[in-house]
Design goal:
Layout lengths: L9 H41 L3 H10 L9 H10 L8
Length: 90
């Protein structure tokens, strides 16, 4: 009998190992991406919107010059009045 060759099934064994390694790397990289990028960003957004007051921010935006945001309620009221439209009865 002849001893088994060292190169027998070498391509298949390297192929299997490559598939298993690539699968493990894909799972680990996905978990690392979620743990170190997605979850911290998610938590920062949650914290920001828990303390966010949109009405206060709108007042800050509208108190700036017209060039910052021209659709503020005061600016829209001025535009309507210039066109002769009634905005609201006081």
């Amino acid at each position: 009998m002849v001893a088994a060759s060292a190169t027998r099934n070498m391509l298949q064994s390297y192929g299997k190992r490559g598939i298993y390694v690539s699968l493990a790397v894909a799972v680990v990289s996905t978990a690392a991406f979620n743990a170190f990028y997605v979850w911290p960003r998610h938590n920062k957004y949650e914290e920001f919107f828990a303390n966010y007051d949109s009405y206060t921010r709108m007042k800050e935006i509208c108190s700036a010059n017209k060039g910052y945001m021209h659709t503020c309620p005061k600016e829209l009221a001025k535009l309507y009045e210039e066109k002769g439209k009634v905005v609201a009865e006081h």
